[in-house]
Amino acid sequence: MKWFWCLFFAFWPILAIAVCLVAPAYGWWFPGPAASPLGQRIDDLFYMILIITTLTFIGTQIGLAYVLFTGARRTDPDVQQKAWFSHGSHELEVIWSVAPAFILLFIALYQLDVWADYRVKDMFPHEEMEGLLAEGLHQKRDEHDNMHLAEVTARQFEWRIRYPGFDEDGNLLPLEREPQPTDLYDVNDLHLPASAPVMIMLKSQDVQHSFFLPELRVKQDAVPGLVIPIWFEATKKGEYALTCAELCGWGHYKMKARFVAESDEEFLEYLRELHRKQFFDGVVEAESEEEEDE
Amino acid sequence: MKPWSFLIFCSLALLHLTGCNSSPPQFSNRAEFDDLEPYAQEYVSEVLDSYFGTPTESVAWERLPVEYHFTETTVSSSPSPRKVTLDVAAGGHGSIGPGTEIHFASTNESNWITEWDAATGLATLERKPTQAIAEGEAVIVGPGAILKNGRHLYAQHCQHCHGVSGDGNGPTARYLNPLPRDYRNGRFKFTTTSYDFSPSRDDLGRVIREGIPGTYMPSFKLLKQEEMQAIVEYVRWLSMRGEIEKQLIETALADYTHEAVKLRVDGGASREEIEAEFYKRLADGEIQESLEVVVDLMVERWKGSDLAENMVQVATKRPPATPESIAHGRQLYLDVNNKCASCHGDAGFGDGPQNYAYTPGKPGPGLYDDWDNPIKPRNLHTGIYRGGRRPYDLFCRIRASVKGTPMPKFDTMKEEDVWDLVNYVYSIPYEEEVAGSGRLEEMVDSAESEIESAAESESNEVASR
Lengths: 294, 465
Hints:
By secondary structure, chain A is of the alpha+beta class.
C-alpha cells in the first residue's frame, strides 16, 4: 500500500507538467501571439518567470519524491538504515532563504523597465506619439495639446468613445479633456492607427471596469473619478477584442467591443465618415444617399 | 435509514423542488386583462393563441407586416433533381446556408439545403423532391426562420430586461431607471417617423446598434446585420401582439369588464343575459369585426412607418450655429406659445414648473409618460442625447416629439425656427454663463465698468506711445 501512495503523490506533479506541455497545442494558452511590442516584452517576462518557477517546481518535486521513496524504503522490515534529521540545520536554512531571495530580487529589478515603460508617464514614447499626430495624422497642435487620440468611457454595459473632430479646413483637432462641439462619438468600436504608439484616456461613468485588450496584453482598471492615460501599439492592422476584465455588474458579459487597428489614412477616413454621420441633418443629397440606409 | 440513502433522498427532494425540467416560457397578459369577465378573457387568449402562438411555438400571421422568412422567391432553373437555382438577384439573405429549410409552394413540401452558393443562388437539396421542380416555382427559403432567429437572439440579449412578452418587465428590469421599454402599446420614443407613426425598421436597428446613452440600453454593435434584423422583426412582432391585446381589451371588449358588467347589472340586466349577449355578438361576427378594424389600422400604421414619405421631412440644411441663430432659438425656447421652458426650465436644466404641477388622473405631481411612469424633462446641459446626437435626431425630437411622453410635437413650426431651436439646444452644454444666472443691474454695471477700464487702458496705451 505504501508504494501506491508514493506513486500517487509522485503522479500529480508529472501530470501537471505534462498538461502544461501540451496546453499550447490545444489552445489552452495565450490569446494568440502578443500583438504589440510591449506585449511581447510582457510575454517574455512571463516566460522567464515561468521557466524559473518550472525549474524550481521540478527541483522541489524531485526532492519530495526522493524523500518519499527513500523514507518508504526505510520502513521495509529488512532495512536497518536510520532516518537523518535535517530539522534545525543552519546551512540548509540559509541556502533556501537566500537563494529564493536573490531570485525574487532579480525578478523585481529586471521587470522594472517594462513596468515603467507601460505605466510611468515620463517614460511614454512621447516623440513617436508626437510624430504620429503631427505627421501621420496632420493634427494642428502645439506642445501643450493632449496626445490622446480618444477618450474611452466605460459604463454599464458598454464602451462610449469620444474622438477629436476636425476644424473648418478638415484638419484633425487635438482631443481636449472637456467635450467640444466638434468631437466625434462612437460606441463599442475603437479605431486607432496601427504600427505606432497611441494614447487614450480611460474613464468610468459608474463603477469600476477594466479596459482589456487580450491580444495586446493591455489591461487597465477604469476607476470612477480618475482619468487614466494608457498607451499601446498594435504591430499589425486588424480587428482585436476589447472586453471588460472587472466584474462590473449583472451585464458584465455584454461589455464586448471591437478594437480596430488601421493605417493612418484609414483612421482619418473613419473619423471623416463618423463626422458625416454625426452631422447628418436629414437632407439627403444626391451623392450621399447611402447615408440614410447604412 | 443509512446515511447515504438519506443523502440520495435529500438530493432527489431538492431536485424535485428546484426542478430539472423548466416549463417553456409563456406570454403574460397585461394588467387590464384581469378586469375582463372570464368569457371575455377566454376570447382574448384564443385570439392571441391562434394568431401569435406561444414564445416557443410562434405563429407567423401573414397579415402582419413582419418579415418572417429569409426570402420568398422563385426557382429559375433546376440543373438536376437535387439541385435548384433560386432567383436571389432581388436580394438573398445572408443567413441562408446549409441547414436552411426550403418550402415548395406547389407540392407544399419542405426540403433542406445542404450546399449553398450565394453568388449563383445554386442550392443542393438534402433529398430528392417527390415531383420534378418546374421553372418559376414559388419557394419560401427559411420559412419562419427570421422570427425563430429573432426569438433566440431576443431571449439571449433582450429578454432579461424587456420581458418574454415585451412588457419591459424582465427579471433585471427592476434594477433599472429609466425602465426598459414596454413595447405593447406600439409606442417607441426615439423615431424618425412623423408623430402618428411607429418606428421604422431603421429606427429600431439604430437603437440596437448604438444603444441609448443615458439609459441602460447598451449598444449591440458587434451583432451581425442579419442578427439585428431578426431582433428588429421580433420586436415588431411582439409590439403588434401587445397592441392587439391592448386594443381588444380596451375597445372590442370594453363592454365586458367587471366594471361595465356591474353597471349593467345594477341597471337591471342579469349576468347570464350579458354573457349570452357576448356569445351572440361573437357568433354574429360583431366582435371579430371590431378586431378587424383594430388590426387594419395597426397594420397600415406599421407599414406606413417604413415609407420615406412618413419620415420627418427636412427640406433645408441645418444653418450654421451663428450667435443670431442661437439667440433666436433661445427666444423660441422661452416663447410662451412653445412652452419649452415650462418643462425644461428657463436655463434648460429640466427643472421647469411642470415638474411640480398636478395633472388630473395622475397619481402624483409632475410629468408621466404613456406607461404611467413618472419622468423628468431632459436636462439639456449634460450633452447626452438619448435618441441620437445627429442634428436630424434633434430635429425629429422637436418635429415629431419624444413619442409616449408629454413632449409635444412641433409639426407646424417653420423649419428655420426648428433649426434655430436645434442650434440653441446644441449650444446649451457649452454655455459659459448659464442663462439667468446674473442680475440685470449687475450685468449693466460690470459692462459699464469694463468699457471704462478698457477706455482707460487704451488712453494709457496711446499716452505711452
